[in-house]
Amino acid sequence: MTGPTLVARVRQRIAAAATPVTPATIVSAVRAEADTAILGDTALLRMADQVRDDLVGAGPLAPLLADPAVTDVLVNGTRVWVDRGQGLCQVPVPVGTVDDVRRLAQRLTAGAGRRLDDGSPCADARLADGTRLHAVLPPVATEGPYLSLRTFRQRPFTLDELVTQGAVPRPAASVLAAVVAARLAYLVIGGTGSGKTTLLNTLLGLVPTTERIVLVEDAAELRPVHPHVVGLQARTANVEGRGAIGLSELVRQALRMRPDRLVVGECRGGEVVDLLAALNTGHDGGAGTLHANAPSDVPARLEALGLLGGLPRPALHAQLAAALQVVFQIRRTPRGRMLESICLLLPGGPERLVRAVPAWVRGRGPGPAGPALGALIRSRDVPVPPILNESWAGSAGPGEQSSPSAPQDDSTRGVPA
């Protein structure tokens, strides 16, 4: 490992030369400052990589972020925790003092064009490699600084890979592909870190190459494998409190960009109203993610978000019934992230309120809404997956979802988000 003295000397040399911080200038500075007489080329390059991490990268956290098994890196003061898909565990990483962690957080956020200081002690940022960073400084962070980094997978999973790793059972995978092919609008739901973005990335990769995908996100995270994707990212206000551009405005702008598939990375506010309006005006096949614990919670969550956009409950359910058809629930388990259920959104009762009715449930197979989903897919001239033609033998009533105790038709393995 490189010591702080060497890093300081290299930093001073680069600053004095007033040259850009490039790999070449770092190697040159390390060669000039280190005792190269006892270093070979391999050791020199390794030392240069370590110095670069300390100067412009994630410092001591860089090896964790480079580990493909790591999904989250959390720093609480000077303690570091990681999640490799099996839950959080503490790891011995020498991040230095609290002041060192503070400087690291400020450097990372500044490199992403965001502000982090005593006047603005909380910041969201997206690093150059796609990693999402959230940082909080004291005194807001009582034992901080706190850093939360969500790593970014450079290549999204294919649907076959999710099947192989046990996250999606093969019978359910055919339903996912059919929903995308039939241009049905859908939401991917789950809790924090459950793998919603991972699944959405995979599904967007199934969109025909002749179609244009327009992404609207608060922080750019979606990178589907598709030749025609354009993204819009929300912007926060500047230090004067001006210049903010929210998701609602971006949804309206996206409608003028000839989208074949309009995708909202995460529905979290009044933009739900604009999204439902868009999906009701001929924009089939839209998608998004939503924080919800279960499909039965989706209508209530959308009601709450709709009120933020000024849409009363009856009007929201009327728009919801016509705009969205399917809900995919993904859940984080001790075995990994797994597709838990596929539900159809159907209006019912005297008030025609929308409810989520299971079409497939992990461990139980077809649900009561399976035939209805199959008929909807068939009406779009797409072959119906065989599992949706099977009879439902569950014990729960329509609109209800039970939690199976033992999976029957799938693997017990999961996949990291």
What is the secondary structure topology, with strand pairs?
Blueprint: H1 4-17, H2 23-33, H3 41-55, H4 62-66, E1 72-76, E2 79-83, E3 88-91, H5 98-111, E4 122-126, E5 132-136, E6 146-150, H6 159-164, H7 170-181, E7 186-190, H8 196-204, E8 213-217, E9 229-233, H9 247-254, E10 261-264, H10 271-279, E11 287-291, H11 298-308, H12 313-323, E12 326-333, E13 336-348, E14 353-361, E15 365-366, H13 370-379
Parallel strand pairs: 7-11, 7-12, 8-9, 8-10, 10-11
Antiparallel strand pairs: 1-2, 1-6, 2-3, 4-5, 5-6, 12-13, 13-14, 14-15
What does this structure look like?
This protein folds into 3 domains: 1-56, no CATH class; 58-152, Beta-Lactamase (2-Layer Sandwich), CATH 3.30.450.370; 159-389, Rossmann fold, CATH 3.40.50. Helix content is 32%, strand content 20%. The protein contains 13 helices and 15 strands. The radius of gyration is 24 Å and the shape is elongated.
Q: Which runs of at least 5 residues are low in confidence (pLDDT < 50)?
A: 395-417
Taken in chain order, the helices and strands follow as HHHHEEEHEEEHHEHEEHEHEHHEEEEH
What is the terminal-to-terminal distance? 30 Å
Q: CATH topology of the largest domain, which one?
A: Rossmann fold
How many runs of DSSP E, i.e. beta strands? 15
Most strands sheet: 9 strands, mixed
Quick one: CATH superfamily of the largest domain? P-loop containing nucleotide triphosphate hydrolases
How many domain modules?
3
Q: Total helix count? A: 13
Question: Class of the largest domain, according to the CATH hierarchy?
Answer: Alpha Beta
* Helical/strand content category: alpha/beta
What global shape is seen?
elongated
Read across the widest sheet, the strand sequence of neighbours is 9-8-10-11-7-12-13-14-15
Helix content, binned percent: 25-40%
Proportion of residues in β-strands = 15-25%
CATH architecture of the largest domain: 3-Layer(aba) Sandwich
Radius of gyration: 24 Å
**Overall pLDDT confidence:** 83
